[in-house]
TrEMBL record:
The gene is MTHFSD. This is Methenyltetrahydrofolate synthase domain-containing protein. It comes from the Eukaryota. It comes from Carlito syrichta. Pfam families: 5-FTHF_cyc-lig, RRM_1. GO terms for molecular function: RNA binding. Keywords: RNA-binding. Signal peptide: none annotated. Residues 249-260 have a biased composition (Basic and acidic residues).
Length: 382
């Protein structure tokens, strides 16, 4: 199954997916195409994990949410270490911390390690939590003994790693582990690797433990020139990190972000979400005097520090909204809850904080609903 010369990453993915299907090497879900394969023997491969020295000394471990890493997640919980699992497609934040109920039995811990358990027994970890991750586990479609890795092609594992670096949650020496079937260990041409690709330090298979001794540098943070406006629109926490790095003076220009209007010297900037800037929304009432950011208001309108959040689910609770805001590091000092009207108003201390919240919260989902987030319209004295 060694790749031919001149192959692409997708060629290698397709060959492995096809081979695993033809040889019946995978469990549910099938087919394995466009997935991190849930290979047969995943539990045997995971048994190597607690024996790694990197595992023994780790206190907080991040593990991807895919099915073949279910047994890895169980071992983390059984060892009473802190388990962090990325939120699906990063739509509501970066991490969830899995919190089993007190006195949980092994059967309950196994349930906590499943995708359903991750949803039921987790709390979000916000950007301001100062979490430190000691060990990272990622899924792979293909990996080489040198430590080169190929995922399923969506880039989420690479982005999660880069975001953790940007947050200071990991460092250059944080080990990365992957758990795969033996057939997924193949030669990968180094020419296929890009600067944003992560590499792995340990490969666990049902029959082997491979220490790659990989010397290729891992990404040192988010490479904004690789991020599209479309991806920014889908991932609220990415917009929050971009705002922070922009304030720190870093170049955060996106891959497909417009630069200048044709035939003019004026800079054309996209909205932080990559889409239209939100229109002013109703204010909460006389209490909300003062504030949306000047660039989001009409000419001459003073900035306000109140943010409107609409289209809340009918059964939403204020705690649901607070939890989502906390995960993005955007919880305001106080808020006005108007659940029966399916809306709320977030009250920040200054216009800059309100503007960051508007930027970060675009596209945020609560339950099945996509929330509408906009500056609260200033209430004028009658």
């Amino acid at each position: 199954m060694e790749p031919r010369a001149g192959v692409s990453k997708q060629d290698i993915r397709e060959r492995i997916w096809d081979y695993m299907e033809s040889e019946n090497l995978a469990d549910f879900p099938r087919p394995v195409h466009h997935r991190i394969p849930n290979f047969k023997g995943a539990s045997r491969a995971a048994e190597h994990f607690p024996r790694l020295q990197a595992f023994k000394i780790a206190r907080t471990i991040k593990v991807n949410p895919d099915a073949p890493q279910k047994h890895v997640r169980f071992f983390v919980l059984e060892s009473k270490k802190t388990l962090l699992v990325p939120t699906p497609r990063l739509r509501t934040g970066l991490f969830n911390k899995i919190t089993p109920p007190p006195g949980a039995t092994k059967d309950i811990l196994r349930k906590c390690a499943t995708s359903q358990g991750v949803r039921s027994y987790s709390v979000p970890v916000g950007l301001d939590s100062r979490v430190l991750v000691d060990l990272v586990v990622v899924g792979s479609v293909a990996v080489s003994e040198k430590g080169w890795r190929i995922g399923k092609g969506e880039g989420y594992a690479d982005l999660e790693y880069a975001m953790m670096m940007s947050m200071g949650a990991i460092g250059k020496g944080t080990p990365v582990v992957t758990v795969v079937h033996d057939c997924q260990v193949v030669d990968i041409p180094e020419a296929l690797l890009e600067d944003h690709d992560i590499t792995v330090d340990y490969i666990l298979t049902p029959t082997r433990v491979i220490a790659t001794d990989c010397q290729r540098p891992k990404p040192l943070g988010i490479m904004w020139s690789k991020i599209s406006c479309d991806m920014m629109a889908k991932i609220p926490i990415l917009r929050c990190l971009r705002d922070r790095e922009q304030q720190a003076g870093k170049d955060v220009t996106l891959r497909d972000e417009p630069r200048h209007l044709p035939g003019s010297g004026h800079l054309l900037t996209a909205s932080p979400s990559g889409g239209r800037r939100p229109q002013d929304a109703p204010g909460p009432g006389p209490k909300s005097e003062g504030a949306a950011h000047g660039s989001l208001q009409g000419k001459g309108t003073p900035p306000v520090a109140d943010v409107y959040v609409g289209n809340l689910p009918q059964d939403a609770r204020v705690s649901d909204l607070k939890r989502a805001l906390r995960a993005l590091g955007m919880e305001p000092p106080w808020l006005t809850w108007q659940g029966p009207r399916r809306r709320a108003f977030l009250h920040y201390q200054d216009p800059a904080a309100a503007q960051r919240a508007i930027s970060c919260l675009q596209g945020l989902r609560l339950g099945a609903e996509t929330l509408r987030v906009a500056p609260a319209r200033q209430q004028r004295d009658k």
